[in-house]
Specification:
By secondary structure, the protein is α+β, with helices and mostly antiparallel strands. 35% of the residues lie in helices and 26% in strands.
C-alpha cells in the first residue's frame, strides 16, 4: 500500500480523504493557499505546504507547484478529490511522467470522456442511448437548421468542464446564435476551450446517475443510482439514493448500459455516468464524470462501501474482493449541500467568521465539512461549506431524519441555505419523488409571484 499521499484539493473533500488515509495507515500531505492557512485540512494532514496566493490559478490549479511538493515530500500518489484538477488530463499525465500515481482513471480516458461531445460519440459507438444532438458547432447557420429540425427547445453545451458553465437553453430560433456565442465565451473563460455542441432539450426529466468502480483487472461494478434532480442553474442541491420512481426493470437496463460503457472505454477507478430519465422510462447518456462525486456519501450509506478507500486500493493495483452479485442496497440516504448563501437574496454567496456552530448528531447522521467554530470563510472559493447526509431504513424515515438534522444544524456569523433545504424537503413533489430537473425553477418563480 502507498505510504504517503498528497491531497490536491481543499475543503470538505480534502478532510474526507485525509480521514480515509488515516484509517488505512497512510501519511498525508496537504497543500493550501494563503487564504487557507487556518483551514481544517491543513491542520489534519501530517504535512502541509503553502503553494501560492488565494486565487485558484495561483494555488490549487498550479500543477507544477503541486508536483514539486509531491516529489519533495516523497509522495507515491496524488488524490485530486473532485473539481479543481480532478478531471484535468494534463495533470494526470504530468503525475505519470513524474512517477506519481494519479488516483483516478488514465489521462487518456479523462481526455476522451471529459470532452462531452467526444463522450457522446463514444457512447453511441458503445450502444448506449444518447440524447439526439449535433457534434461540435462549427457553422452556426447549419447548427441552427439542425436545431430547427429536431425542434426547440434545444440546449447548447460546452464540450469541456462542468458545474453548469457554458450551458444555454434555447427556446426559439431567434435566440440561437446569441446563445451559442455566449456559451462559447463562457466556456472559453471557464475551461480555456470554447468548443460547444447542441442537443435536444428534454423537459420534465430526472437526472439519475450511476456510480461505478472499476479495478485494473477489467472488473466493473455498479453501486446503484443517485437521483440528483433537485437543481438550481444545473447545480445539484439535494441528492438521494435510491431514486424513488425508478422501476427495477429500468434500473437493471441502466446498470447494464453503465457496465457496457465502462468496459468499452477501458475505465478504471471511481466514476459516474449521468443519465436523463423521462416519464416513459427511457434513459439517455448525458455525461461521464471521471472522478469522485460530491454526492458519493449517499452511495456509501446504501452499499456500505467506502468509495475513497477503494479509489486508493484500485490505484495501488488491488483487485476487487467482491462482484456485482455481492452488491446489495439497503434503506435510503439523502444528502443536502450546505452552502454559505442567502436563499432570500438570489442565493448571494456569504462569507464571514463562524461565531457559533452546532453540528447535528444521532444514529446515521453524517456531516462532511471543513468548517469549525471560529473559522472564517474566505471569499475566493465555492460557497459549499459542507454536506449533511442521513441514512434510514426507508425513504420516509430518511426525510424525517433529514428535517430533524437540518433543524439542529446551527451557525451564527454566516447565512446558509439550511432553511431553504428544509422547505424543499416538505414539498409534495419531493415527498412523492416526482420532482424533475426543472422543479426548482418553477418553485422559485411561484415564490416570486406571491411576493
Amino acid at each position: 500500500m502507498f505510504k504517503k499521499i498528497l491531497i490536491a484539493n481543499r475543503g470538505e473533500i480534502a478532510v474526507r480523504i485525509i480521514r480515509a488515509c488515516n484509517e488505512m495507515g497512510i501519511q498525508t500531505v496537504a497543500i493550501y493557499s494563503q487564504a487557507d492557512k487556518k483551514a481544517l485540512h491543513v491542520q489534519l494532514a501530517d504535512e502541509s505546504y503553502c503553494i501560492g496566493g488565494p486565487y485558484l490559478k495561483d494555488s490549487y490549479l498550479n500543477m507544477s507547484a503541486i508536483i514539486i511538493v509531491a516529489v519533495n515530500t516523497g509522495c507515491e500518489a496524488i488524490h485530486p478529490g473532485y473539481g479543481l484538477l480532478s478531471e484535468n488530463a494534463q495533470f494526470a499525465e504530468l503525475c505519470e511522467k513524474c512517477n506519481i500515481k494519479f488516483i483516478g482513471p488514465h489521462y487518456n480516458i479523462i481526455a476522451k470522456m471529459g470532452d462531452k461531445d467526444e463522450a457522446r460519440r463514444t457512447m453511441q459507438k458503445a450502444g448506449v442511448p444518447v440524447v439526439p444532438g449535433m457534434d461540435e458547432i462549427i457553422n452556426i447557420a447549419e447548427a441552427k437548421a439542425f436545431a430547427k429540425k429536431i425542434g426547440f427547445p434545444v440546449i447548447v453545451k460546452a464540450s469541456a468542464g462542468g458545474g453548469g458553465r457554458g450551458i444555454r437553453i434555447v427556446q426559439t430560433e431567434e435566440e440561437f446564435e446569441k446563445a451559442v456565442l455566449t456559451a462559447k465565451l463562457e466556456a472559453k473563460n471557464a475551461f480555456g476551450n470554447d468548443k460547444v455542441y447542441v442537443e435536444k432539450y428534454l423537459t420534465d426529466v430526472k437526472h439519475v446517475e450511476m456510480q461505478i468502480l472499476a479495478d485494473e483487472f477489467g472488473n466493473v461494478v455498479v453501486l446503484g443510482e443517485r437521483d440528483c434532480s433537485m437543481q438550481r442553474k444545473n447545480q445539484k442541491i439535494i441528492e438521494e439514493s435510491p431514486c424513488k420512481v425508478l422501476e427495477e426493470e429500468t434500473r437493471q437496463r441502466m446498470i447494464d448500459a453503465t457496465v457496457l460503457a465502462a468496459k468499452y472505454v477501458g475505465y478504471t477507478n471511481a466514476g459516474t455516468i449521468e443519465y436523463l430519465l423521462d416519464k416513459e422510462n427511457n434513459f439517455y447518456f448525458m455525461e461521464m464524470n471521471t472522478r469522485l462525486q460530491v454526492e458519493h456519501p449517499v452511495t456509501e450509506c446504501v452499499t456500505e462501501i467506502d468509495l475513497v478507500k477503494w479509489q486508493i486500493r484500485i490505484a495501488n493495483g488491488q483487485p476487487f474482493t467482491f462482484k456485482q452479485k455481492d452488491i446489495t442496497f439497503r434503506g435510503a440516504a439523502i444528502e443536502c449541500r450546505i452552502n454559505a448563501e442567502d436563499a432570500t437574496n438570489d442565493f448571494k454567496p456569504n462569507c464571514g467568521k463562524i461565531k457559533l456552530l452546532h453540528i447535528p448528531g444521532g444514529a446515521w447522521v453524517r456531516f462532511d465539512s471543513a468548517i469549525y467554530q471560529g473559522y472564517e470563510i474566505p471569499p475566493f472559493y465555492d460557497s459549499m461549506i459542507g454536506k449533511l447526509i442521513v441514512y434510514a431504513r426507508d425513504r420516509e424515515e430518511a426525510i424525517r431524519k433529514m428535517k430533524s438534522a437540518l433543524s439542529e444544524l446551527k451557525t451564527e456569523g454566516i447565512i446558509t441555505n439550511v432553511d431553504f433545504s428544509a422547505t424543499l424537503l416538505s414539498q409534495k413533489e419531493f415527498e412523492d419523488g416526482s420532482y424533475c430537473t426543472n422543479f426548482l425553477e418553477k418553485f422559485l418563480k411561484g415564490q416570486a409571484a406571491t411576493k
